[in-house]
Design a protein that fits this description.
Blueprint (H helix, E strand, L loop, with lengths): L2 H20 L9 H8 L4 H10 L5 H14 L3 H6 L2 H8 L5 H18 L8 H4 L7 H11 L9 H10 L7 H11 L5 H14 L18 H32 L1
């Protein structure tokens, strides 16, 4: 199955869940980066800082921290010259606030003084920014500059492996395999769709396979079914043999 079809089925699964959830008052939300892209017209600095803040925290915490920070500081130069303690307090809701504040200040300094206040738009230059790895750089390319790239976080890595699109041990390996196997026209849609699907359907623990429209093609689901059917067969055959043993003993 091609990735375009997979993406469509993920959206259809989430749409059905949303219809079901809306009657109970719960609605699926866009990811924090997608929201930033839509609300701020993809402002590259906010997307970059939002990606740094989103590490190991929930989307709602990222939203609050980004809002706090940019209601106080408008550009890279202001952030570069800000007191670290002030940045720490503003980004505190995102957790690991000391490390993240230091990273934000270092990145802002380089953007302000080496790139004249403009976030660079190539992978090579983004990777030069302090502490910026491939996932963050690729997020900036996709969400800020609308360039084809595949940011691989824990959701993309897990789901690509569960579906059988790749067999990989690290997000970097997943990124390279996906770039090799998936048509470039789909690259920009992978992160947003897989992350939302991972937060709402294909969760790390207890994925909602029963409602998932991908189960017919999913490797993880097929293997789980195989284990379930073989364990139910073996429990049936052992209870049969217990019955026949009782039968022999009863004669
Ligand atoms: S593991 Fe379950 S929820 Fe995830 S893609 Fe496969 S069938 Fe869907």
């Amino acid at each position: 199955m091609d990735v375009g079809r997979i993406i469509d089925l993920m959206h259809e699964t989430m749409r059905r869940l949303e219809v079901r959830g809306s009657s109970q008052g719960s609605r699926l939300r866009l990811t924090a980066l997608k929201e930033l892209q839509e609300e701020e017209s993809g402002d590259p600095l906010r997307i970059l800082i939002g990606t740094i803040l989103s590490a190991r925290t929930r989307d709602e915490n990222t939203r609050v921290a980004v809002r706090n920070l940019f209601s106080r500081f408008k550009g890279a130069r202001e952030l570069a010259d800000a007191k670290i303690e002030e940045i720490e307090q503003l980004v505190r809701p995102a957790g690991f606030y000391r490390v993240k504040a230091r990273r934000i200040k270092e990145v802002a300094r380089m953007i302000a003084y080496e790139y004249d206040g403009r976030v660079p738009d190539t992978l090579e230059e983004l990777l030069r920014l302090p502490g910026v790895g491939r996932k963050t750089a690729n997020c900036v390319l996709v969400y800020a500059f609308d360039k084809p790239a595949i940011p691989v976080d824990t959701h993309v890595h897990r789901i690509a492996n569960r579906l059988g699109l790749v067999s990989s041990r690290s997000p970097e390996e997943t990124e390279h395999m996906l770039m090799h196997r998936v048509d470039e026209v789909y690259w920009k849609r992978i992160n947003d769709t897989f992350v939302m699907f991972g937060q709402n359907v294909c969760k790390p623990i207890a994925p909602s396979c029963s409602v998932c429209l991908l189960k017919d093609t999913c490797r993880y689901y097929r293997e789980k079914e195989l284990v379930n059917s073989s364990s139910s067969n073996s429990s049936k055959s052992s209870s049969k043999s217990r019955r026949s043993t009782r039968g022999v003993g009863g004669r």
